[in-house]
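LOG
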Amino acid sequence: MNKTRCKWCNTNNLKYVEYHDKEWGQSKHDDQKILELLILEMFQAGLSWEIILNKRDSFSKAFDHYDILKIINYKENKISKLLNNKNIIRNKRKIEAAINNAKIFLSIQKEWNSFANYIWHFTNNQVIYEIDKSKSHLSDLISKELKNKGMKFVGSTIVYSFLQAIGIIYSHEKKCFMYKNQKYK
């Protein structure tokens, strides 16, 4: 039986379908998963999400399965190794930003007891329902905050996609089988 999915989901790509059906828009509070999605969204800047999703397993291996204590200690030899890894996006600025952002992520974790506490506080732990947007007042605000803290590649559009990925912004279309008719902020 064919299920109706959000119009952006390429149903010919099983990784995309699985991401749409099992992960996108689901509330996430695990910091390691949140860090993974922040890094992946950052690498997506200027590219399609499908490209990143197809390389997701390679990114996980290359970035030590998003072990933040390893990432914050990457030195030139690891950066060089990442730049030579043909299975990921080999952009030096994005690689350096991932390391930088992990350091800031860790400092936010320490301040808020978890990054999840920090990111979810912007909506008082409420989910927002929106469709057909690529940025909003919320993503503008969080983008500005993250940039002020020193993060890179966290423009409003990237932050908006990140918020959708971790379920703060719920964007399954009403015709999609994943749509849940509940009260949203």
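LOG (cont.) second protein
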Amino acid sequence: MQVDIDMGTTSAGDVAKLDIEELLATRLLVQGNSGSGKSHLLRRLLEQSAKWVQQVVIDPEGDFVTLSEAFGHIVVDAERSEGELIGIANRIRQHRVSCVLTLEGLEIDDQMRAAAVFLNALFDADRDYWYPVLTVVDEAQMFAPTSGGEVSEEVRRLSLGAMTNLMCRGRKRGLAGVIATQRLAKLAKNVAAEASNFLMGRTFLDIDMARAADLLGMDRRQAEQFRDLKRGNFVALGPALSRRPLPVTIGPVETSARSSSPKLMPLPEKPEDVEDLIFTPDPEDMARQASAPRRVAPRPRPTVDIMDALSKSSEEAETPEAPTRGPRAPAMSDEEKDDWIAMTLAEIAGAPESAFRSDSELYQDFLMRGRMKRISGAPLAMNEFRRRLAIARSGADAAMVESEQWQMAVSLLAHVTEDLQGVFLMLAKAAIAGDACPSDAMIARAYGTHSARRARRFLDWFEEQGLIVLHTDLAGLRIVAFPDLDRQTAGGSPDAPADEPERRDAAE
């Protein structure tokens, strides 16, 4: 059923329509500096679509709680335990109730954590409750930042992961992401890139204008128009809005935010006893206490730096008068170091519980082994370690690694999140070698989980990104095809155990 809602008027004076059903499948990104009318646009969208689709609003400032009076949204105060938030989110999806999660009054790291817990609970709801939900996140650059800022790395990763799930994998679960941001340059690119619809408002910084123009398919000269947009005016593009960039003026709204833009008003007449009025103490003054300044915990020092410092201290302590216990091993050549790295990664990947240990824990193990070989500094950066470890886990031999198809598979990792690179390469290795399609248990093990259900989600996501094509043969066995590699796996049973993969006999 196609439902078009009225967002305002176009530059030609026509009604600016937004196809809600198309929006649910293609997601929306709204960008505009403070005062551009971004929140007004979100309110118009929510009001016009309230009777057609369930809505969940992540509201950092508590501006959208007024929707409850006119449209019946439930207001959820985020100052709760994680268990409470998960339970509320599950019941929200089960009973199809629209809600506003207000984060007002929480510190930024608490806001990010609460929003992540709530969004992840919506994402992990049972399949029976995958009804369409318009999921609106205001000030999205707070929850999917390009860098950590003052928040801890743990909170940043948790929040960024929840936003990535919403925008990248939420469609099949009924979650339609609508994200709004003041600064495109501060919003994580892998989150922004998943939106197919755009409403770009006034912005002044060159970097933000350039990204907005790039998303809309404009050149640099056309990007200058974003400086001249008035409040409430946006440029629309996308399958749910318009096939070509279209100037739109957002229409009026029924409700209003609790906070509003400051208005000028004349000062009152100055009282004659103004000094007594200001400086005479009030009895309550003595009872008040200044709030303690927020302490920002220093960022932990990287382990690599600590180990470098310890190594240097040890070397400085060794004087000619205090000889070492034995001859020091000569420094490795570059070729020897490459061989050591390959051998060490193979040992780490081959360990029985390697898949179920975090990458950071394995990286510390890798660094410690390097120290034992007196390798100065980090032999590999963390990102390169993850990529090389994923290759080692895939089981590809030296001949395959040198092949053109494998190099193409490695280049495709740019479109895969870091946590799924090992799974992707394992599937690619099976396709290039013509092996049977890995079972759900094997895929889950490669990721570091025991959930076969999650393994099937990974395959769905790969297919949604256009990286693979899933189909079955005449025997009902699963086949994974890679269009970019022009290769596909042999048929394999999804239910085969991880340690005994079922391979299809060629004679069949």
